[in-house]
Amino acid sequence: MSEYDRIIIGEQYQKIAEINQKLNQQVIRDRLTGLFNRSYLETSLREQFQSVQEKHGNIACMMIDIDSINYFLSKCRPVYFFYDTM
């Protein structure tokens, strides 16, 4: 394999890694709000609780449910919920 081939393969590998990272963000985030989705939240919380149990530590969890989310987003999205997708 030539040096040129190695360079091309390296560049392609880097592009694939960047695209995979963007896709991963799209999979774990809600498109409307940019916040993490339920599936990611459940997985992440399970991992965090397990880690705290193993270390015999403490953890706190707070969840907020916003009524009339569409009204809230229409007023606040430009400031608080901007999320850039691919």
TrEMBL record:
> What is any one GO biological process for this UniProt entry?
cell adhesion involved in single-species biofilm formation
* GGDEF domain residues: 28-68
GO CC, any one term: plasma membrane
Instruction: Return one GO MF term.
Output: diguanylate cyclase activity
Segments traversing the membrane: none
Sorted alphabetically, which InterPro entries does this protein's record hold?
Diguanylate_Cyclase (IPR050469), GGDEF_dom (IPR000160), Nucleotide_cyclase (IPR029787), Rev_trsase/Diguanyl_cyclase (IPR043128)
* Record protein name field: GGDEF domain-containing protein
> What is the species of this protein?
Anaerostipes caccae (strain DSM 14662 / CCUG 47493 / JCM 13470 / NCIMB 13811 / L1-92)
